[in-house]
Design a protein that fits this description.
about 260 residues, alpha/beta, ornithine cyclodeaminase, domain 1, Rossmann fold, eight-stranded parallel β-sheet, four-stranded antiparallel β-sheet, 9 helices, globular, ODC_Mu_crystall
């Protein structure tokens, strides 16, 4: 797939388009499934100001949004973090989650165990490599799914009541990471209702009802409900790339 994600933010005085290629690698590949470039334009006259590495921006901004959702939705006492998947997004999520939150235990599971072991050996803190997704998930307070799964790999009866799940993979209308039981019994938050109802197989195929957009919780128009089992379905929004690209450009311009 080739995706085009244009956005304009008046508040940030920023105009961008992200070009992203997405290739489903049937076998483990050294090439990431997602590759991206962000073009930053001058909103006053349309001239191109910068070309930025969109893969880094995508990884960082996606993890940042998951962290915001987690800050708002996770249980009051969250000690165990579980990551399902060991690709680019697993690393970016691990970095910000261990920076912002204090977990006593971090677990990882990946379809190919070698990648999970490599992940555990290359990050800064201790990570427990689990032999099954169920082992990784059982008792976890915060769960992050960043896989290339097309059918569910996370099941509701595994999940601790009150846990928070960030569902980041399965970005196609016919792909799943979470099963119907989890989708229907958890309180569902999304980044964009419109996107979730056209792009997310987890939402479309389960028929789960969307409770709120994350922005509504940030603004205070919808409650967070951290005492409930919550799912944040992340698909990514072009404006996230715009704000991130402008932040990078302004820092670079200032000589930082």
């Amino acid at each position: 797939f080739l995706g085009v994600m244009p956005a304009y933010s008046a508040a940030d005085d920023a105009l961008t388009t992200k070009l992203v290629t997405f290739y489903e690698h049937k076998k483990d590949s050294s090439v990431p499934s997602h590759q991206a470039t962000v073009l930053l334009f001058d909103p006053r006259n349309g001239s191109l100001k910068a070309v930025l590495d969109g893969s880094v921006i995508t990884a960082k901004r996606t993890a940042a949004v998951s962290a915001i959702a987690t800050k708002l939705l996770m249980p009051a006492f969250a000690e165990v973090l579980c990551i399902l998947g060991a690709g680019v997004q697993a690393y970016s999520h691990y970095d910000i989650f261990t920076e912002l939150f204090t977990f006593k235990e971090v677990r990882i599971w990946n379809r190919t165990k070698e990648k999970a072991v490599k992940f555990a050996n290359s990050v800064n803190g201790p990570v427990q490599v689990c032999s099954s997704a169920q082992e990784a998930v059982t008792g976890a307070d915060v769960i992050i799914t960043v896989t290339m799964a097309t059918t569910p790999i996370l099941f509701g009866h595994w999940v601790k009541p009150g846990a928070h799940i960030n569902a980041v993979g399965a970005s196609r209308p016919d792909w799943r990471e979470l099963d119907d039981e989890l989708m229907k019994n958890a309180v569902l938050f999304v980044d964009s209702r419109e996107a979730a109802l056209t792009e997310s197989g987890d939402v479309i195929l389960s028929g789960a009802e969307i409770f709120a957009e994350l922005g509504e919780v940030v603004k205070g128009t919808k409650p967070a409900l951290p005492e409930k089992t919550t799912v944040f379905k992340s698909l990514g929004m072009a404006v996230e790339d715009t704000v991130a690209a402008k932040f990078v450009y302004d820092s670079w311009s200032a000589g930082n």
